[in-house]
Amino acid sequence: MIILTIRTDSPDAEVGLYDGHKQLAYETWHAHRELSVQLHRKVEDILKSKGHTLQDVQGIACFAGPGSFTGLRIGITTADTYAYGLGLPIVATKEDNWITTAVARLENGENDTIALPEYGAPVHITQPKK
Length: 130
Description:
By secondary structure, the chain is α/β, with parallel strands linked by helices. Helix content is 33%, strand content 25%. The longest helix has 18 residues, at 69-86.
């Protein structure tokens, strides 16, 4: 089972490609404020580096948090969009060994349908100025 992993809870983002529990490729980079611009390109690059395309992916795993509001929002929305658009199962986990847990869940046929972020604290949104 080819699985795409995404983690964007901090300024250093991560994408990985797995065949079951076997890591095929993994990249970590300092995305910080460029995450929304770089994430899709990094996913495409990691797939291409191993001779795959998005159509080869059979499941998506993402880190649910806790972490940065904006980082999690971008990464999880991207993961949810890939899963929905490609008709793939998606799981979100928040353990230290999140990839192992997520891969096991996907291999067991689990599907969260929509991954939801866990921010670790209430979100503080400023009120619009009138």
